[in-house]
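thread: overnight batch results

M.L. [08:02]
morning all. the overnight job finished for the chain we discussed friday. pasting input first so we're all looking at the same thing
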Amino acid sequence: MKIAVVGTGYVGLVTGTCFAEVGIEVTCVDIDQKKIDNLHKGILPIYEPGLEEMVSRNVAADRLHFSTNLGEAIQDCDVAFIAVGTPPGEDGSADLKYVLAVARGIGEHMNGYGVIVTKSTVPVGTAAKVRKEIEKALEKRGVDIEFDVASNPEFLKEGAAIDDFLKPDRIVVGVSSERAEEVMSKLYKPFLLNGHPIIFMDIPSAEMTKYAANSMLATKISFMNDIANLCEIMGADVNMVRKGIGSDARIGTKFIYPGIGYGGSCFPKDVKALIKTAAENGYDMQVLKAVESVNEAQKEVLFDKVVKHFDGDLKGKKMAMWGLSFKPKTDDMREAPSLVIIEKLLAEGCIVSAYDPVAMQEAKHTLGDTITYAKDQYEAVIDADALLIVTEWPEFRSPNFEVVGRLLKEKVVFDGRNIYEPQEMEKTGFAYHCIGIRTTHKEPA
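M.L. [08:03]
and the structure it wrote out:
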């Protein structure tokens, strides 16, 4: 088979590379010449564990190609994936201008039957709009070419995207014809050999499935953060509560870890888009509005703890921050809780010294020189008044606390990810503040 993937961002690059990995001929297309030039040099626009090596391997095997020429890539193509961005508008709705522009381009160049697949996260009804754009372009050319449109939402976790694609929990495909179903079945056959299910459904249901999945996960996170805040007030231990409810198979253990809110490119955008879609159709998504509200408030919880500890006097204080990306194993800074915390600390006159194993360069694009970037986690805490844990990178889990204590002006840690044990921290003389557990606010010994 021959496929084209339009868009070389996170979804497009992972999709194209993983299809090439199973032997399919793939051309990834992007209008950004610099991005394509860099990909030819082996320089990736994103960080994802294992992806760089896989790209290099498949380029060397002549299965994976990169181009700015959509017309060439679409010729004699069996399947064309649209994997461009759908950024949120000011009102929260998904902006489809890039998706529809690609659809027009496909209609202007396709020369035979193919399945056009929306891989981007798009609202219900987008596939119908894609079809209309292609039909208009074909009509303008004066040609009659058969094609099908399908929806194939992605369910990739940043930091584990390759495993998610090669060993999926499920593959969801929305189709409107038997021919399209046959083509998509053939395409995904290599991924089904180990029993991973492919679920065919109508196109609107497939489009809705993506939003429903991300919104459910976001709901679990916000619910647990709400419970954590109440636990702290009432003197309960949220970690014990989490274990107690997680043992119920109906609830499960995933996505019930309290913290400082979700971020990234998916959850915030998709929750907003689903709320907006519902409003446009006369329905009020009350639960999701609460999910969004809780999440925005949760990003300020760690800052509030800092303010309380220092009795509101933060001017001139140096704050060390471990972690900048919205989650481990990615350099993604979009909607990261760190940005909210840093903004508030700077507004109070703090100096921020931060370290992240991967996201430093990306953070500089957003934050510039407003903060100091340390060469390692220990340099960040030198002469700092407190340490804030913002992203749960593995290397932060077992630091040398004797060294950390010597480097800090005051032995105080604000843990936004609950990666340490309160009792152990107090034994080592630290004042320790975390999420959902009432901890001591006394000065450390």
